[in-house]
Design brief:
4-stranded antiparallel sheet; 2 domains; single chain; 5-stranded antiparallel sheet; alpha+beta; 24% helix; Helicase, Ruva Protein, domain 3; DNA-binding; 295 residues; N-terminal domain of MutM-like DNA repair proteins
Length: 295
DNA sequence: CCGGACTCCTGGTTGC
DNA sequence: TGCAACCAGGAGTCCG
């Protein structure tokens, strides 16, 4: 499941190839991948062709590429959903069966390139959207679809104090809060479980009863887990995720809790369990991670 | 504000 | 072998 590290790897890989490139052709193989484009597919194609991209940007799991920034306030917004991949291909390379959108472009330095949006489950999407003020920093522009998304913990402008305040004001469970992209973005099921395991916090620990020191530990562990994944090039145990060069970037060996049910906890040796929570699996060590009172 | 249910979706796996 | 049921979950929406 692409989370912040995987999306960042895609962004970084795309940057040298598409910054300054001009779109020459667009093929839509499946219009469902344009679900978040509010106008018809023809509108998407018409506006894309001839457009020149600025450097790709990211907030949480959202990626966007400003289009002709001096002339327009548009951006190509990309979300990978559950199974999305953005692949950089030679213009004459074969098109993968699950390719939903294919974009041909010319880069003034590198010549013709092709970007393929491949997505098995079609939870991901591409869309052209309007850039608007983010509202938290003057002059900071984000696509309107991304405006409600909080800054992610790797963002230099992430406000730790504000996060702790908002977290403490919540009346909910900690994992639910971690997965709430309007509170903190970029964290999905895998890294939520990993950061909670590292912090020895139970997924259903009430946020209101989570002490400030433990919240600080958790945020630090979130950053460690994301940073480690970033350094390793993203996680994908099921090889759904490929980076922009089509190289598999998985390192499931470094997971301590996610998908480790039935295996010994790397810390205490007791068995990791998996429970259904929020319509998804939660993996944790029942010994190390227990719900605590106001401590 | 909160949480639960529901929707989108299909390849791989499991079970008979 | 063949087929159907089941599973994975990011994010948005709706409802009580």
């Amino acid at each position: 499941m692409p989370e912040l590290p995987e999306v960042e790897v895609v962004r970084a890989g795309l940057e040298p190839a598409i910054t300054g490139a001009t779109v020459t052709a667009v093929q839509i193989f499946d219009e469902r991948s344009l679900r978040r484009h509010t106008a018809p597919a023809e509108d998407f194609v018409d506006r894309m062709i001839g457009s020149t991209f600025a450097a790709p940007r990211r907030r949480g799991k959202f990626l966007w590429v400003p289009v002709d920034p001096s002339r327009t306030d548009s951006a190509l917004v990309v979300h990978l959903g559950m199974s999305g991949q953005v692949l950089l291909r030679e213009p004459d390379a074969a098109v993968d069966r699950l390719t939903r959108i294919s974009i041909d472009m010319t880069n003034p330095e590198h010549g013709p390139v092709r970007v393929d949006f491949v997505d098995q489950r079609i939870f991901g999407s591409m869309a052209l959207d309007t850039l608007v003020e983010s509202g938290d920093l003057p002059g900071d522009l984000v696509p309107s679809q991304v405006r409600h998304i909080a800054r992610d913990p790797m963002d230099p402008n992430f406000d730790d104090a504000r996060f702790f305040t908002r977290l403490a004001a919540r009346n909910t469970g900690i994992k639910r809060a971690l997965l709430d992209q309007t509170l903190i973005s970029g964290i999905g099921n895998i890294y939520a479980d990993e950061a909670l395991w590292a912090s020895r916090i139970h997924y259903d620990q009430p946020t209101s009863a989570l002490s400030r020191p433990r919240a600080k530990t958790l945020l630090a562990e979130v950053r460690l887990v994301l940073g480690k994944a970033l350094a390793e090039g993203g996680t994908s145990f099921d090889a759904q995720y490929l980076n922009v060069n089509g190289e598999s970037g998985y390192f499931s060996h470094s997971l301590n809790a996610y998908g480790q049910q039935g295996l010994p906890c790397p810390r205490c040796g007791r068995m990791i369990v998996r429970e259904q929570f929020m319509n998804r699996g939660s993996h944790f060590c029942p010994w190390c991670q227990r719900v605590r009172g106001a401590n």
